[in-house]
Amino acid sequence: MYGRGSQMGFGPPVTPDIIKNLIIANGVVFIGQNLSHAVTELGVVSPASVWFNFELWRPFTYMWLHSSGPWHILFNMFSLWMFGSQMALHWGEKRFLRYYLVCGVGAGVLIATIPLIPWVMGLQPPGPEFGYRTLGASGAVMGCLLAYSFTWPTRTIQLLFPPIPIKAIWLIPFLFFMEFSSGQQGVSHIGHLGGVVVGWVYLAREGRTPGVPTIDSMKVKWRRYQMRQKLRSVHEEEQRDRKRKDDDKTFH
Questions:
Q1: pTM
Q2: Which end of the chain is more exposed for a tag (fewer CB within 10 A), N or C?
């Protein structure tokens, strides 16, 4: 649920065709997974399969697969419908689809690459994490949530679980807090973080979303913060000087 100005609404006013097609595509693949386990085996991503077996399609195919239970795909598709529809209406379908795919594939590349870095640097031997398999649209969906929070940062979202209101700009930090504090097993932290990082870099380089923090904008904010701190220090010093003078006058 989200606020439209002073109004409240549940879900987007219109569901764009691109969102419908993405949901249908994920649903068809999910049915295929339940009909044949080979669909899942062929599409999941893991460091070993991508970089040792050179199965380079997997950072793309994993994002159309979901675990066998219904909740994984339902939660991802609900989030895509809820937040992705708003972005597709605001951006246009082509721009949204390009961003969605970049976030999903980019997260897949990071899932396949990051576990290898300590081994490549000679810090540790190959471990079981090289064979860990990941699937799901969560990286792409997290990118959608990030774009939403940067586009409408002050919009209030009424969460369902827990039932609290939150500003859109704090949605991603809150989700990560819940994810890491819950200790839930089987969650791809790299995939979720990867979708956010890739989406952030994409939006910053694209330069069409004014609310996206960049290195330059953060430098400006840091300099402003330092200037405010200096002005505050000067003001406090002046107040102390006045107090000392008043105390001296009172003493004499």
A1: 0.86
A2: C
